[in-house]
Fold these 2 entries.
Entry 1:
Amino acid sequence: MTHDTLAVPAPRDGAESSARWWRDAVIYQVYVRSFADSDGDGVGDLPGVRSRLPYLAALGVDALWLTPFYVSPMADFGYDVADYRDVDPLFGTLDDARALVADAHGHGLRVIVDVVPNHTSDRHAWFRAALAAEPGSPERARYVFRDGRGPDGAEPPNDWESVFGGPAWTRVPDGQWYLHLFAAEQPDLDWENPEVHAEFEGILKFWLDLGVDGFRIDVAHGMAKAPGLPDVGHPNQVEMLGTAVLPYFDQDPVHDIHRAWRRLLDTYDGERVAVAEAWAPTPERLAAYTRPDELHQAFNFHYLSAPWDAAEMRAVVDESLRTAAAVGAPATWVLSNHDVKRHVTRYGGGETGLARARAAALLTLALPGSAYVYQGEELGLPEVLDLPEEFLQDPQRLRGEGQGRDGCRVPLPWAGDEPPFGFGTGAATWLPIPPAWRSLTVAAQEADPDSMLALYRDALRVRREHPALGDGRLRWLDGPDDTLAFVRDAPGGGAVGCAVNMSGRTLRVPARGTPLLASGPVQIGDEGADLPPNTALWWEIEER
Ligand code: NOJ
């Protein structure tokens, strides 16, 4: 399958765009279920998030992204929405959502909420109506129902596979099949149907009117399917995600939907934004989601997926900056989220993983653009790899695709010497917190100036205060192989340097100036800085 080259409209005007908060915002991802529990049921909730806003304000982030808290049977922990305009009782009420948004604004924090447009829950009123209605009815036309192939239509309509494993089709009693690119409890909507467009415009307006500052768009590369729903012609399609063009992802017409949403966002005051969760085969195609008349940002999963290797990391950074600049959008940087193994563990785990994660924090927060912080990364939490079998609940694993995502969703440890570490008032939590996390609690790290939390707070403060950091460009410096070194020039003079040693031995990097922050013990002299393995340094270069 081929794609036309996507047209690139002129970039936004530079001076105008620098005033836009989202171009260099640090956005903290709150996985609501695992952040803070106010009512002792072992599951995080909106009042819990509200009670911890002072922590987030003190951390120094600019905005929160709240994962779905809408009415849901929780087959995919809220990414299966049954009512987009109400809060699930597990997480609180609509008034709690209003109070949270208002309080966050009072703390100077913006709030982004998730919107899930590719699919609904199978308990959504529309899907119930579709099941009760006849094949060919208007109720079925909101979803992707088709007759099957083969004798008696007993074979799925095509060979598409669910991202969570197995066929992407489920048969209903009257013999038709419906499409679900994720779990069977998440039927795909048919975005060829104007009713679906109107419904989502209404949903976006509902939350914008309530005061949210924007949206994280789930599966923003879904929605539009290739005409005729052609076969892929290939098994193990999950391995092709993000690297190949599939007839159900990243289809050009999806951009029309994002353009319409941008027009809607622009009718509101206060720079309301949208960030795409989009998996595209190339950085160029990813950047297309952030053309000037589309969404503001897209998650940079190419950066998240890069190994701990200076040459590969530099290539990803260059490519990300180049493709974002071509459409006038800010680059974004993300190391972890609720769908992937936490990066302390990805980078090797133990002391090595932690040292690399500390260095990666300084690298990420020094790069030009906007950065995402997944809850708990500021505490250096590792993936929990040994959760007892009876707790494992992720539908991805249950449908047979991979180890599942439970291990990165374990509730946050706040304080105290034993689970639940102040997460809530009840003894049990929906996933157990490892007793070994007693040294990783917020309270323990607040008392330790060398903790990961202290590093994040310091880095976010310097980033906020120093005009060289945030939006802008970078200049690479020459340094030894296995290192990255670059300078961020401030618009009015002065600069900040950042160097990272990604090797296993101490290396000298060309850092000349006043040290600002380091992720480990660094020796600085007139000839540069000696960086130990897996260590990063920020230094200040005075205006000459
Ligand atoms: C991406 C979300 O981040 C993930 O958690 C979810 O399972 C899928 N989209 C399906 O909605």
Entry 2:
Amino acid sequence: MRKQIIGSSWKMHINSINMAEETGEDLNKLLGHESRVEMFILPSFPMIPKLSEVLKNSSIKYGAQNMCYEEKGAFTGEVPPLVLKELGCSYVEIGHAERRSYFNERDENINKKVRLAFKYGMIPVVCIGEEERDKKENIGEIKIRSQILWALNGLSKEDAQEVILAYEPVWAIGKEEAASVDYVENMHGHIRDIVKKELGEEVSKNIRIIYGGSVGPENSKELSKREDIDGVFVGRFGLEAENFKSIVDNFIR
Ligand code: PEP
């Protein structure tokens, strides 16, 4: 049985170390002993050492929003995977839509990052999702297939089933409304089918697929009831500890 998982990327919404510390402490008070679901937060890089203190021995794990696709060398401004490992990161987000569009992140490098995440003992949270224009032209599923094939390329079955696939339709990120629950469930089924075809039944049964894109306490209730939705990935509406807790509570079975 797949364990439900709820994550939150703080992006740059939380933009000071003090604010990160306070939010981490609030979350820890509310959820630090919750073990029925898996939870993680992804702050900006420089906040990670502070969060590692705040969340010491907590059920809430932490990670990074990105990392370099190489291990070391002349890559100005990048963050090496080893440093994330040294800081105790359990997760690393890879290929978010904002990174794909603003920072030109390419599928080849996303695959390199996924492999490096495993090399350094971190779980990759790989973002996939179609854009508005793909949806309009009915090629959303093809786009997603290609993103999945690239992300999982070359992984062993053991590693592939540990990947967390975050389905985030680009047209639903940062909006007032999320994708409809039926739409999400249908896409998750499609994603699981692709994984089954490429990597076999076992991997497809074990891999966790979470939904992201304008998730909040309200719509997470309905999302949590669907079989193929293994959790959610939250942005704006999870920045308040109380809201994050309400979302987590919805997923406790
Ligand atoms: C995201 O971009 O990953 C995200 C889930 O953002 P929001 O919830 O703010 O739409």
